[in-house]
Write a structure and sequence with these properties.
The complex is a heterodimer of chains A (170) and B (606).
Chain A (H helix, E strand, L loop, with lengths): L3 H21 L5 E3 L2 E3 L5 E2 L10 H18 L21 H10 L1 E4 L4 E4 L6 H4 L2 H12 L16 H11 L3
Antiparallel strand pairs in A: 1-2, 2-3, 4-5
Helix pairs in contact in A: 2-5
Chain B lengths: L1 H16 L6 H8 L16 E2 L13 E7 L11 E3 L2 E5 L6 E5 L5 E6 L21 E3 L2 E5 L4 E6 L5 E6 L14 E3 L2 E4 L11 E6 L5 E6 L4 H4 L7 E2 L2 E2 L26 E3 L4 E5 L26 E6 L5 E6 L14 E8 L2 E9 L4 E6 L5 E6 L7 E4 L11 E3 L5 H4 L5 E4 L13 E3 L4 E7 L1 E7 L13 E7 L8 E7 L4 E8 L8 E3 L3 E5 L4 E6 L5 E6 L9 E5 L2 E8 L3 H7 L28 E6 L2
The chains are: A mainly alpha (170), B mainly beta (606).
């Protein structure tokens, strides 16, 4: 029971945040080198008026369907093996998302054995963790339809630099 | 004459006396039509039963005789075994085994539940399926998800010995059944999506001692091949056949696992199996030092090996330099059929790549290679001209080459999808009709490869893919068809709403059975595929239909419990509504039809 309160509080904050975005349109988000973030610095998705998605959302689509979809199903819709993410990403915070992906999570009982592996040392996931996060957020909250985003922004130089630094290549 | 007869008799005595002939038991047990003593029905993988009480005329009267819940929710592949009065039922992870008393409607005689670290669950790529236990000499062989091989006393369930075949921390797991042959148990391994280097391994059936291991790739001595004596398409494979076809030491994390069915021919003492995809799924990362395609032998290959020594007699690579994840692990059915007007000892293999191969199983000569789904488009076919430098190789259509289109490019509309025109779901062969009954997928994909790096025990995939029903067809994602392997032609084909992910059963009653992902068990006429009976079981069927007889009565049984690769893609529905490639009006998701849960349903005539 004690745990319920922060979650409620968080949901409340999120609600306010959503209201703020609603009220001010793009103003609550800001762009830095092709990457979008909310007022508090949390990465987020962006759709241009013609539907073009930002590079990171598109990149997240690709990485998700390489690393995550064999368990969590196509487009975050879930499978017989692992839960869908389109609902849960509406309430999971950025830090909690990072925590679960990096450290894993186990729910093993008599009826169900559900094990999320710790992916913290997997560069194919962790170097693109923000990408995957904003993609799933776009699916959960942004109304991004299923499937490959039709139009995407070009890859920013910053994304290239981050990739190389993260993998330790030149 | 008399002398010959004497010699024959003493040979037979020797055969029974030496422990090397212990597989006499498997031959005897699988020779009894009232039993189902191997997952594959028999060594030849026919999945055919001589039982004929259930016929085309009376199959419509089938009723449920009894049912059994396994208590496990995951995808249930494989089938029960029946030996004597006992039925053996397995489950996916945690790999429980039940021995059920057929004299008392399936009362539990014993139950064995291994303790396994749950951390093995997420390294199992596509669900924690298990394709079943094997029986030989009063022993049940269980090969757990974590690669522990356990021998259990078939009467009591007591452990006789245990052996460990691999390390789940490196992504090495198991989903396959084992092959008991003579005094050995031969086992495979899973994990090509984790950069595991594939192999088959023989253990002493009595003690669990490891006897030999044959890798799919790497140095000749590791692969148990002889550069001069091991052949491919009739020619010696030569020195370093694998090392020469990999860039640097990529073979060390090169995949080529062996997670499918195995068959065995007692006449030649050869056993047969296929190898999986090369790691990663990004072909650009696997190109040769010159940037050109390189074969990556012996991934995507069929091996014929000596069952005593493991030495390879012949090997044939179906998909050199894979660009689509078309694992070569599907079953190899050993049948003596007419090819070109001649009776041949053949091996028939329905590959993930959409081609059905008929080979001479003694020599490895390629006799027929033909598409068993007209939707297959990545290749124009296999070159059959023995004088061509391309002999035996599939010709790749550039438009569908994920390598030629390159990294970070989305190659669209490739048929079949990565799950293949058929996956592990085994076909059946009926000697009555000479036809093969094949459960298939009718799914295509977009495939975009990109760069990935390898970390031990982590997925090593490197491609994004999306799947959808074959465009311009009936809109469903599967077919159940009859195949003539002598000519390479479809005889009849029934469209199915979803992939047919259930192993087929052919019977002497003229009835062919299979299950569907919605949960139906269906009976069709062997001649024309006409549906004769259907019943909706508690969950989607990815298990294989089997039959047995008890106290003079024929039964048909199947495990339900949706999951596996099929459950992963289909639970959410595969259609990509933004692409407009799917069936008109889109496609309903499997979850609208069925839910999780393992159970056994047993049918008989009233």
């Amino acid at each position: 029971m004690r745990r319920a309160r922060p979650v409620l509080a968080l949901a409340g904050t999120l609600g306010l945040l959503l209201l703020a975005i609603e009220a001010t349109g793009q103003a609550a988000k800001k762009e830095k080198n092709g990457k979008w973030e909310t007022a508090d610095g949390t990465p987020t998705f962006n759709f241009a008026p013609d539907g073009t998605v930002d590079w990171y959302t598109y990149s997240g689509f690709r990485r998700y369907h390489s690393e995550c979809h064999v368990c969590h199903g196509p487009d975050g819709e879930g499978s017989t093996y692992a839960p869908g993410l389109v609902q849960s990403m509406k309430t999971l915070s950025y830090p909690d998302f990072m925590q679960v992906v990096a450290s894993g999570r186990e729910a093993v009982g008599a009826a169900r054995q559900s094990v999320m592996p710790a992916l913290g040392d997997n560069p194919n996931v962790m170097c693109y963790i923000d990408d995957i996060y904003v993609y799933l957020k776009a699916r959960a909250e942004g109304g991004l339809p299923r499937g490959r985003p039709a139009k995407r922004a070009d890859k920013p130089a910053a994304a290239d630099q981050h990739e190389k630094a993260c993998f330790g290549t030149k | 004459m008399r002398r010959y007869a004497l010699a024959g008799a003493s040979l037979a005595l020797i055969a029974f006396a030496v422990p090397g002939a212990a597989n006499q038991d498997v031959l005897q047990q699988t020779g009894k039509p009232e039993q189902w003593a191997l997952q594959t029905g028999d060594y030849a993988n026919h999945r055919f039963s001589k039982l004929s009480q259930i016929t085309r005329d009376n199959v419509k009267n089938l009723k449920v005789a009894w049912t059994f819940s396994t208590g496990v929710l995951r995808g249930h592949e494989g089938s029960p075994l029946v030996v004597g009065d006992i039925m053996y039922v397995h489950t996916p992870f945690p790999n429980v085994v039940f021995a059920l008393d057929l004299n008392e409607d399936g009362k539990i005689l014993w139950k064995y539940e291994p303790k396994q670290d749950p951390s093995v669950i997420p390294v199992m790529c596509c669900d924690t399926v298990y394709r079943g236990v094997a029986y030989a000499d009063n022993t049940i062989y269980l090969h757990q998800a974590d690669t522990t091989l356990v021998a259990l006393d078939a009467k009591t369930g007591k452990e006789k010995w245990k052996a460990v075949n691999g390390d789940p921390k490196k992504g090495e797991t198991n989903t396959a059944t084992v092959l008991p042959v003579k005094d050995k148990v031969i086992v495979g391994i899973s994990g090509a999506e984790f950069g595991v280097r594939g192999h088959v391994t023989a253990y002493d059936a009595k003690t669990g001692k490891q006897l030999w291991r044959a890798y799919s790739l790497g140095p000749d001595q590791d692969m148990l091949v002889d550069p001069e004596k091991t052949t491919s398409l009739g020619k010696p494979i030569g020195k370093d056949s694998s090392l020469k076809t990999w860039n640097g030491d990529q073979w060390k994390i090169g995949g080529g696992t062996a997670w499918g069915w195995m068959s065995y021919d007692p006449d030649t003492n050869l056993f047969y199996y296929g190898t999986a995809n090369p790691s990663t799924w990004n072909p650009v990362q696997r190109a040769g030092p010159d940037g050109k395609p390189i074969d990556q032998k012996w991934t995507m290959s069929l091996f014929a090996r000596d069952a005593d020594t493991g030495m390879a007699k012949w090997v044939y690579q179906m998909t050199p330099f894979d660009e689509w994840d078309y694992d070569g692990i599907n079953e190899n059915i050993l049948a003596d059929i007419d090819v070109g007007g001649q009776k041949r000892k053949t091996l028939v293999h329905f590959d993930r790549n959409g081609l059905a191969y008929t080979l001479d199983r003694v020599t490895g000569e390629l006799l027929v290679a033909a598409k068993y789904d007209p939707a297959v488009n990545w290749t124009t076919g296999v070159v059959m001209d023995k004088n061509s430098p391309q002999y035996g190789r599939p010709q790749v259509v550039s438009k569908y080459s994920t390598f030629q289109n390159g990294q970070d490019v989305n190659t669209k509309g490739v048929c079949p999808a990565a799950l293949g025109s058929k996956d592990q779901q085994p076909a059946a062969y009926s000697p009555r009709t000479g036809l093969f009954y094949v459960p298939t997928n009718h799914v295509c994909m977009d495939y975009e490869p990109f760069k990935v790096s390898y970390t031990a025990g982590q997925p090593y995939v490197g491609a994004t893919l999306s799947m959808f029903p074959a465009p311009g067809s009936h809109g469903g994602m599967g077919n159940f068809l009859a195949w003539d392997a002598g000519t390479g032609k479809i005889v009849w084909s029934n469209p199915e709403k979803f992939s047919v992910w259930s192993g087929a059963l052919a019977t002497a009653g003229g009835v062919v059975f299979y299950g569907t992902l919605e949960g139906y068990i269906k009976a069709v006429d062997e001649k024309d595929g006409k549906e004769l009976f259907r019943f909706k079981t508690p969950s989607g069927i990815i298990g294989n239909v089997m039959t047995y007889s008890h106290k003079g009565k024929q039964y048909v049984a199947v495990l339900s419990g949706v999951g596996g690769w099929a459950g992963i893609g289909l639970a959410a529905g595969l259609t990509n509504p933004t692409e407009g490639l799917g069936a008109v009006g889109g496609y309903a998701a499997l979850r609208d039809y069925t839910a999780l849960g393992g159970s056994l349903t047993v049918f008989t005539l009233p």
